[in-house]
Amino acid sequence: MTQNYADIRRDYTQSCLSESELTESPMALFERWFEEYKSREVSDPTAMVLSTVSSCGQPSQRIVLLKGVSEKGFRFFTNSNSNKGQEISSNPLVSLLFPWHDMERQVIVKGKAIQLPTEEAEAYFKSRPRQSQLGALASQQSQPIDSRQAIDEAYDALDREFPNVIPVPEHWCGFCVEPTAIEFWQGGARRLHDRLVYHRNEGNGWSTQRLMP
């Protein structure tokens, strides 16, 4: 191997984050940062890393797409039989990471994944493009399969079977990650990054704290 990974580095000089910029609710600051990030016309602005832990304590990570934000939390949809669905079922404590490198920012969420009502999951499924609906119906997500051809054939068979309305799979579900802590990370010069964290109080309000970089 010829690549020297240790030599790949850069300084962070775009911005800083002060306490004066904090909002009463972290969701308001999140939405402000999100709009600033999206305005740069980046690919997949809603992409977030979801971290779960198996029953034996093995962490897993994958990128999923954010599908809604409210004061309650961050929503996404998935197959309940997938690895992430099964791990959330056994341990609903999860973490989200929004890696907004172009702005030298990260948002890190710690919280609990609460399953959304069935009607909300079904409504979102019906709003998806036909190809996405068929893909969700054809795939037994995270299960072994013999070949790419096998999943393509399953997809084509369902496309013929359901020329009009596609049924909502029984395994389709949604989650809302209700945050207990949200960290806003802004890269800083000399590696002196700004890290401001919201912690949820017992009264359902928020307190803030600065962390060392």
Could you characterize the architecture of this molecule?
- The protein has 213 residues and is of the alpha+beta class.
- The protein contains 5 helices and 9 strands; from the N terminus they run H-E-E-E-E-H-E-E-H-H-H-E-E-E.
- Strands 1, 2, 3, 4, 5, 6, 7, 8 and 9 form a 9-stranded antiparallel beta sheet that branches.
- Helix 4 crosses helix 5.
- The longest helix is centred in the last third of the chain and has 14 residues.
Tell me the helix content: 25-40%
- Determine the N-to-C terminus distance: 32 Å
User: What does the largest sheet look like?
Assistant: 9 strands, antiparallel
Give me the strand/helix succession.
HEEEEHEEHHHEEE
* Secondary-structure content class: alpha+beta
Which outline best applies?
globular
Show the helix and strand layout.
Elements: H1 26-38, E1 47-53, E2 59-65, E3 68-69, E4 74-79, H2 83-90, E5 93-100, E6 105-115, H3 118-127, H4 130-138, H5 148-161, E7 172-186, E8 194-200, E9 206-211
Antiparallel strand pairs: 1-2, 1-5, 3-4, 4-7, 5-6, 6-7, 7-8, 8-9
Helix pairs in contact: 4-5
What features would you highlight for this structure?
25% helix; 9-stranded antiparallel sheet; 213 residues; alpha+beta
Short description:
This protein is an alpha+beta fold and 213 residues long. It has five helices and nine strands, in the order αββββαββαααβββ.
